[in-house]
Amino acid sequence: MLRSHRLRLRLTQEALAERAGISSRSVAELERGRGRSPRPRSLEQLATALDLDGQEREEFVAVGHALFWASRTGRPDRNLPEKGIPAANLTWRQLPADFPDFVGRDEELGLLAAILHPDNHNPRLAVLSGPPGVGKTALAVHAGHRFSSWFPDGHLYAALRGATADSADPAEVLAQWLRALGVQGSALPAGIDARAALFRDRLAMRQVLLVVDDAGGYRQVEQLLPATGISVVVTSRLPLTGLPGVTSIDLRPLPGPTAVKLLCQVAGEDRVRAEPAAAAELVSACGGLPLAVRIAGARLAARPHWTVEAFNERLADERRRLDELRHGDLAVRPGLHLAYQGLTPAAARAFALLGELGVPSFPEWSVAALLGVDPAAGAAVLEELLDARLLEALGSDRAGQSRYRFHDITRIYARERREAEIDQAEWTAALARAATGWLAMARQAQDGLDCLRLYLDDRDHTATITDQRASAVAADQPVEWFEAEREALAVLVSACAEAGLAATARCLAGCSADFYELRGYYDDWQRAVSVAQVACRRANDRSGEATMLRGLGSCLIELDDSDAALSALYPARALAEEIGDLAGAALAGREIGFMLSITGRVQEAEAELRAAAEGLEQANLPLARALALTSLGFLLRERGETAGALDAIYSALRIARLCDGRSTEAYALRILASTLQVCDRPQEAERVAREAATLFEQIGDLIGAAQSLRALGEALAHEPHRLDEAEEALTAAAALFRDQGYRWGLALTELSLGEIEVRHGDPRAAERLRQSLRYWTDEQVPALQARTLVALAAACEQLGDPSARELLMQAYELYHALKAPAAAELAVRLGILEGTTSPT
């Protein structure tokens, strides 16, 4: 007790002796339990010097008196009451000193208070569980000190060292506690059952807190539990839910602000608060683990010349981070190493391989795939890693799969184990097994998607399903499966590319691209095919390189980067033709034709699309041919050849319906709706647009649904009395485009809304249309640039702006260059001869 109170005040023995007016030698001997017991007068002096009052002072003085009288009677057990000292006043204070820099855990402390309070008539047993370094012991000790007034008979403490080879024997722990309770010599029973019974008897009617630290499992704890009515806190990596009446409290890493507060307590508040961004980055690198944050703070405190940012630079290299998180006898690595040493060989191998795999989270089946064992063996290994608290269970993902992950610090240690114990060849083989497992699942999911096929996967590269239950999940819930595995797939493409598994990298990227296109994940799409394309080139896989280049070009079209798209698509087609891949060449040609059509190179575009449609028919890719015909219809419509446009689109629709290609059908319907508007058939356009929107919603293509709502809005806008309905549809489309980050669709919708505002005479139309014009000018889309100029000219006319005629002249020049029918209409409005820019 003396040592605990002295350390709480951060006093040396000499400083306390000076404050109390006694010798420092006396203080040292009292703390070591040697020499004479304290005299009553010295007790009062020490209590005053320690700033004790109330119940704390009474308990301190009572224990001192008990020791004093015990020494006078020569009793070997100084804790026994003598000379009329009531047994109720005798206390045992075995808790380690409290942590003066303890922060947070308010919710957990509130729950502990409810469990441990003497008025609680339910079992007063709490288990604090969690991974190494999460602060289980600190919370247990802090709670013991915080609620000490509830336990006038004191605290008993035992460290069981459950994760070590020399874990404590419960029988010996009971012996130590019984000695503390006054049982000596031959009175101490020999067997654990007898000791447990005597322990329960000695604690009957007492108000004591037991703190059992670092329990390895049930057997270490069961015999230590006293009779009902005693409050007990156990710390363990396991939740020990099988103990009767237990309340398990699983500790998580500290949230960012609380971790920063702990850093302030250890390293100094002014210093840490001066670099708020660096402090947040540092505790993030520590993963919020209190032990790691405390070590980081201690290292900063020991080196006043370091800035927080400078220490972050030292932590940035993951291969050195655990070395940096060490200060004196404090370190993160030993706790992890102890847990690792307790694993079976299979679990230790899985731990190391999973750490190197580096995916943010993973499903159960992947453990078996990585190890090359059956699902049952993989599940057993997973359970062992969970019990060791080296993995964390995340619950079910979107597809209903159980999902798991490493804490960042634990993952770094797992990578160390892989580098130390598993050679590169074995690692590459394990990666190949895991990646092809994901590929097999991804193909199951891809086959269930309703989307526009990009034909980027190479099914000749085999991937075998090994877990039928997991395979059924991917097949039954394809979108949800891809959403759940999205981050893992991105990591695997890069890992395979780095390991020289180019074929697997390209198939993973190609298989995922259909999903990326469906959901508008263009950054994921671009990154995956780019990484795989480089890997294929390095491996001299020319077919893979051509396919990934084509996939990159298709993605860049969606990202509105026409020049970059064509720079990828032309080489992709040339390489495909060179190696005799006629289907790949035709697919690239289709994308080239579409890109040329929206950038105004209509003659080249028409030739490309017609050639692509023919090539895709020869390659027996009917749905791809339907897409080429739909793009051809769009082009012909822009040129004013509406009859030819309708023929091409209706042909595409027939193919799509014959092949049950719902996404291709929906795409054709959307283009048909816009074409029917041009043909002044608004009722038909409205019906077709609604049909397209419904179909896109059913297949989960939100961008397609938004495009169809835009077409619906434009169809409704043709009828003056339905402008409000049109605006409602367009506003809904804009919201979807904005949520998906699809700038092209958003700019086109803003154009349509601006045109409606012009019809309403709304003065806000001009600014909306100017923003749309900037986009089409930057993206070099002349047809839409001209359309926007015409609408903006009308808005300017309403505002009396003289620039309206100049805007119309710019629109005319663009339409004239495109050879669009709108050029003749503008020529009449402007009073110029068609083919010139001069007035008639």
From TrEMBL:
InterPro entries noted in UniProt: AAA_16, Cro/C1-type_HTH, Lambda_DNA-bd_dom_sf, P-loop_NTPase, TPR-like_helical_dom_sf
Pfam families: AAA_16, HTH_31
Protein's UniProt keywords contain Acyltransferase: no
Single GO term (MF): ATP binding
Keywords: ATP-binding, Nucleotide-binding
SMART domains with a match to the protein in the record: HTH_XRE (SM00530)
Alphabetical list of SUPFAM superfamilies matching this protein: lambda repressor-like DNA-binding domains, P-loop containing nucleoside triphosphate hydrolases, TPR-like
Organism this protein belongs to: Sphaerisporangium dianthi
Boundaries of every HTH cro/C1-type domain copy: 2-57
Protein name (record): ATP-binding protein
